[in-house]
Amino acid sequence: MSEFDWFFEEIGSGIRALVETFIEMPYFFYSEQDMHAHLYHKLISGKLGELFVETHFGDKSVLLHKEYPTLWIHLGGRRGHFDLAIIDPEYASESHSRMQVREPPYSRHRLKAA
Fold first, then answer.
1. How far apart are CA 61 and CA 63, in angstroms?
2. What's the whole-number average pLDDT of the chain?
3. Bond preceding residue 89 cis, omega within 30 of 0
4. I want to staple 53 with a disulfide (CB 3.0 to 4.6 A). Which of 15, 31, 68, 92 is the partner?
């Protein structure tokens, strides 16, 4: 068991808060992006916003990211993205198969959740 398994409790709590807000006030959100922003705020305001890791390039990074590139390119020739992603801190400083030629270089990271 990983010392970072608490992530899933944090994610579940954030999703429950989003669902409860939506049920209570569905017009609080104008768009899907509003829901992403609300969930991001809930998550970054908690323990996920307090933990920083050193990346492969020696930079510090928060683990939670809004819009993170996918590994694969879609049939139309464009790379997709996850709406929210959490970098796996156990592997944040290592190089991974998520490498790409173009920027941003941080897409090398293995994700804990997306």
1. 6
2. 81
3. no
4. 92
Half-sphere exposure of 34 (CA within 13 A, CB side): 10
H or E stretch at 68: strand 64-73
pLDDT at 72 over 80: no
Residue 99, classed as helix, strand or coil, is coil
- What is the Cα–Cα distance from 61 to 54, expressed in whole angstroms? 6
Torsion angle in degrees (nearest 10) through CA of 112, 4, 37, 101: -40
Residue 43 vs residues 27, 39, 75, 92: alpha-carbon distances, Å: 21, 6, 32, 19
Q: In this structure, how many other beta carbons lie within 10 angstroms of the beta carbon of residue 61?
A: 17
pLDDT in tens, 24-59: 999 999 999 999 999 999 999 999 999 888 776 777
Distance, CA of 47 to CA of 7 (rounded, Å): 9
